[in-house]
Design goal:
By secondary structure, the protein is α+β, with helices and mostly antiparallel strands. It has two domains: 64 residues; 150 residues, no CATH class. The chain has five helices and eight strands. A hairpin with a 4-residue loop joins strand 6 and strand 7. This is Secreted protein.
């Protein structure tokens, strides 16, 4: 039997031990590397998934925000087919009817509404006893009494078979030229303002008054433009509700 030198045998054992240690070290290192790659390799995938989810979530929100903004813009923009609302400063509403006052009256006339009775007053002379005109609902299909030259029904509007709307007005040049009038006398400035509003500026109070006085109340032609203007600009625009 061949004898192995003790030193050689010891060297062989040392080599074997080193080999085992190296193999173990490689195994541990490989596991660590594999674990490290798995740990660092999964994070980008997770981040990518989060970014994708965030993008997908943001898209509906952006779309919804855009739709909300579009709806707001539509609401803020009036429809082209929408009819303009009546001018608040000129529009008057009673219980059963409504109308727009003439543009000539803007900032000069105020309306006193009491149910179905409307009294139109000069802002310069807001006197209920001396109005521009009165509007009221009366019984019957049409007026029975029309008044006289000093105060009369200028016109009327049918409502039903049992009611109608009447527009009454004083003719202030006649009242001023009639010494026996039962209406308390007022200043010429007041009568001039009321006559101007009643006629839309087409009748000069002083001229008509002087003609009435000089002709002993026979020249009344100058009064008719008041009736014509009130009919065209007030009576004809009254609408039954």
């Amino acid at each position: 039997m061949k004898r192995v030198h003790p030193a050689a045998q010891a060297g062989k054992r040392t080599t074997t031990i080193i080999a085992i240690i190296l193999i173990s070290a490689l195994a541990v290192t490989g596991a660590a590397i594999t674990h490290g790659l798995g740990m660092w390799g999964t994070k980008p995938a997770t981040v990518a998934t989060s970014a994708s989810t965030k993008t997908k979530t943001s898209q509906p929100q952006a779309k919804q925000s855009s739709q909300s903004q579009e709806q707001t813009n539509k609401q803020a923009t009036p429809s082209e087919t929408e009819s303009p609302s009546p001018e608040p400063a000129l529009h008057v509403e009673a219980q059963s009817y409504e109308f727009d006052m003439p543009e000539y009256w803007r900032d000069r006339v105020t309306a006193h509404v009491d149910g179905d009775t409307v009294t139109l007053l000069s802002k310069a002379y807001p006197d209920m006893d001396h109005p521009i005109c009165n509007i009221r609902v009366a019984d019957g299909e049409k007026p029975i009494a029309m008044g006289d030259i000093g105060r009369s029904a200028i016109g009327w509007v049918p409502m039903t078979s049992v009611q109608h709307i009447e527009v009454w007005a004083y003719r202030y040049p006649v009242i001023a030229a009639s010494p026996g009038s039962d209406i308390s006398p007022q200043t010429d400035a007041k009568y001039a303002d009321l006559t101007d509003l009643q006629s839309g500026g087409t009748v000069d109070y002083a001229s008509v008054k002087d003609r009435l006085v000089s002709t002993d109340m026979r020249d009344v032609e100058g009064l008719f433009p008041i009736d014509t203007w009130l009919t065209n600009n007030l009576v004809d625009v009254i609408k039954v509700k």
